[in-house]
Amino acid sequence: MRLSDVGELGLLRELESRGLIAGTEHDAAELPGGVVVTQDALVEGVHFRRDWLPWRELGFRAAAVNVSDLAASAARPEALVVTLAAPPETGLAAVLELYEGLAEAGVPVRGGDTTSAPLVVLSVTAIGRSERVPGRAGACPGDLVVVTGPLGAAGAAFRERRYVRPPVRVEEGLRLGAVATAMLDVSDGIAVDAGHLARRSGVRLVLDLDAVPRAGELADLGFGEDFELLATTPDPLGFPVVGRVEEGEGVLLLHDGEPFDLRGYEHFA
Predict the structure, then answer these.
(1) Is the pTM of this model over 0.70?
(2) H-helix or E-strand containing 127?
């Protein structure tokens, strides 16, 4: 059996069942003392194309997607640890631009590693602190589903062979963290990410796609990489309400009042 047969979720389930990983059900790892840690890697040719993304923007993107996981954990970022793998012929000026982009996220780089590689890989570990991590497993029937901003911009941009800067929703995450029963960031498309909340919480999420604030076409909602926060909460706090939580399982997407099929990004597919 190959990774393409089981997918990312199947791999995680297999690792969990064998006791090889633990506590990985949320966007970040929660450690004693309110410390929250997350890690993401950007691989050239998989997560970005260098001819579409300047070095400075690559640096900011790598920082922002990790800070997004901290925001989904209602954590305030404190440090980044960065590993850069790059071809030896890479220009020094390019690498300096990349680190300037990392710095734009406003979180200090406290360490990391560099190594030679045939293509660019940028791996960032983000460390923060949270008073209360909502996680993915607490959604309750009767909760509302909210999103912090428009979705679809990343998909629309990709069709134009470009990338958009990920938003940094730390303050929104801290606000929602006080009331949200579950929360994550929209990185794989709203359908896939809502499915994570539904599965971990043992509930059904009903989403009205016509209520979702959009920055692209309807199909762009399945692209992912929008990095807005999706939360279930009894109090929407003024954020756009896009659905509700019911008893049951899975995700029901509605468009014009009818069930609608919307796929998302599947790792290893």
Answers:
(1) yes
(2) strand 121-130
